[in-house]
Amino acid sequence: MKKHYSIGSIIWTIVEYVSLIFFGLCAVVPVISCVVTAFKTEEEYQSTNVMTLPENWLNFDNFVKAFEMADMGHAFINSVVVMICVLVISVIIGTQLAYVLNRFEFFGNQLIRNLFLFASLLPAVAMQVTVYNIMTELNFVNHLYGYIIMMCGTDVISIYIFIQFMENIPNSLDESAIIDGASYWKIYWQIMLPLLKPAIVTSCILKGVSVYNEYYCANLYLQKKELRTIAISLYTFVGPLGSKYNLICAGVIISLLPALILFVLCQKQIYSGITSGAVKG
């Protein structure tokens, strides 16, 4: 039996596909432009537009210069150290806080949740004056441990992900463990934490990407060259006399490679974690 399509449905389908193609190009064109620019020499970049293909695709001089001049190897180590420390501390604190708020009824429980929600609505930039004063008084500026402690600040989104996921875990598990003589601490470590793996994966993806790409606070609190993260190492090629965008683009590609490789190797676990850790209504 043949299906009859109305003119309205055909037009709407065309609009949908055109919109998908348009927004897909909006996302892909900057990446393509970055790759093209990364392989251009200084003379090619000055004499051609951003979408003109380079003469030699095997010219890796920009990548070598960017890696050496920006000290990206050391910057990458700093970023990895910061990201691992922040993720471990944030997951432990966030899951413990979510466990208390979800499993225990006490005076002020709802107030604490509302305060977290209110804090998430405040723009981070508007609070930087106060945060900078606190960091200065505690002598945390230009220290990697100070930046790590600041980045470990309460992640409200992750806490709500943990809380929503815990609501799908029956209280009977806790009650059975208590009957068997388990303490609340043991219930958290041996029952709740293993069951929260999908939510932890989701939280680590969101938090890890934001920490790895974080520029504003890293540039503000890590001003020493040896403390630079990967996000601010590219600032080496920006100056008052102009920016070397061919080297910047090469550095951007270098900084993207670790995340890209990690995604390719762990994409099955990432997709599984996002699906299982999704907030259910």
Please describe what this structure looks like.
It is a single chain. Helices cover 72% and strands 1% of the residues. With 281 residues, it is an all-alpha fold. Strands 1-2 form a two-stranded antiparallel ribbon. A hairpin with a 2-residue loop joins strand 1 (238-239) and strand 2 (242-243). The radius of gyration is 24 Å and the shape is globular. It starts with 6 loop residues before the first helix and ends in a 5-residue tail after the last helix. Mean pLDDT is 82; it is low at 277-281.
What is the H/E string?
Answer: HHHHHHHHHHHHHEEH
Radius of gyration from the CA trace? Answer: 24 Å
Unreliable sequence segments: 277-281
Give the CA-CA distance, first to last residue. Answer: 39 Å
Count helical runs. Answer: 14
Query: Major β-sheet, in short?
Result: 2 strands, antiparallel
Number of strands: 2
Strand order of the largest sheet: 1-2
Structural class: mainly alpha
Mean pLDDT: 82
Shape category = globular
Share in β-strands:
under 5%
Helicity range: over 70%
Keyphrases for this structure?
single chain; 281 residues; mainly alpha; two-stranded antiparallel ribbon; 14 helices; 2 strands; 72% helix; 1% strand; globular
